[in-house]
Amino acid sequence: MYSFCLKLKDEKIADFVLNKLEELKKDSSLLFSKRNFKIYTNIIVHYNGKSYIEFYEQLSLLITNTITKFYEKNLLKKVLYTNYFYFSKTEQKEILKIAKSLIESDEQKSKSELIYISVYNYILENKSMILDGFVNFRLKDYMEIIDYIIDLSVNSFLIKREYLEFVNLLKTYIESRPSTTPLVHLIYLNNESILLDKNKEIIDTDTDIFTAKYLSDISFSSNDYALNTLLNLLPKKIIIHTLSEEDDFLTTLKLIFENRIEFCFDCEICNLYKSTISAIHNISEKNV
Asked: What is the pTM of this model?
């Protein structure tokens, strides 16, 4: 018979583990009980079946899921508050929000595997586990991912803050200058911009970085020159004829020019460029 004792300090965690063990209990091969001893709630598991490897795997997965569910957010907070204590509480809250989003996405599988391997190797050689101690001292590889997620979240937060400062700077500039152009059409196609005046004549984009109104060390897309031209023209109205889904560049234009922006999806200009795309696509297919 294999016996294992999981020592927990939190009754909520104990209830979670007991419920999961109840789900795993298929026959009399698995028995478990709960006993309170001093500061710990001890969950004692007995297994007398033949598939020990399968049982180890199930128990390791259960402990892994318990760690990610009950410890992960606190570990993120601990690393953030220790390494980035100089951010304000509001800033830390925003960074933590980014971290939670990141750790629940792409990193989920790899970090869970690291926890699982550590747990599996531990229960093969030990008959008991103090879960708090295991999390704090036995998950080095997992904690490296937690550190990485926090660092990534801080960088994301700083980039977002710079972006908002950039947008506010340009909004202030626009509001402080009189408009010099009544209307500009912006055709947005394959992440590239074409500017037309009110007579639908092409406007040459301003490529002189020395007269740029945007911050030269911040770039959001390949359309910086188009943005710089719009900032020089300061149109009262910008009609965006977009044949693409909204991306960072279009979002930035909306934030900067606000109520000067109008979107169009079906007009003479839109249809002209749709026809052009269709013709190019047909020619490409014939040449293949």
From this structure: 0.78
